[in-house]
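Intended use. Records like the one below are meant for learning the mapping from a protein sequence to its folded structure. Do not use them to infer anything beyond what is encoded.
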Amino acid sequence: MTIMQRKARSESADEALRAQTQGGLEGMIIYSLVATGVCAVLHQTWPLFRRQTLAGKAFLVSGAGMSGLVIRAEYKLQRYEYKQKRIWNEERKQASAQLAREGSVGSEEEIKRWISDQRQLDLHPPTNTTITLTTSGSYLTQDHAPSVHSSKSNSSSSTTSSSPKVILPQRFGETETELENEVLDVLVKGDE
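Structure written out for the chain above:
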């Protein structure tokens, strides 16, 4: 197990502990308050309960508080685990779909590697992303390159890059410069 995996597991365990602790405290307070209210009502309305000692009444309230602590803590922990499982399943679906688009069958190891790579990108996003815009016929393609510039070309493959491409259809009557400016505006807003 790598250091990053240990750190992620430790953070996940800490987050689960915080959720469970918070749930336990909430449950203890709520159940104790409800039990105190019930004891007060019973004390005022039922003579047999009124004759019970203070220790007996406190035992009922503390028993309800401990029950609330356990029930609510377990509920919060199960809810946290459910959320984590949904996130994990969603990541696995995305990984399988992406690997299928790339033409490979997603084995367990490949899926884990893809998820790990995505998490690394989430932790350390590229800081200096620049774009090359190239027009080809009625389409505008976007490549990640060292500088921002626009070039007109009639060839369909003007760059041989392994970086991702986005193909945007050019709208009727829109000039290439307007479309390039719109794409740049969207990308700049996305980086902010």
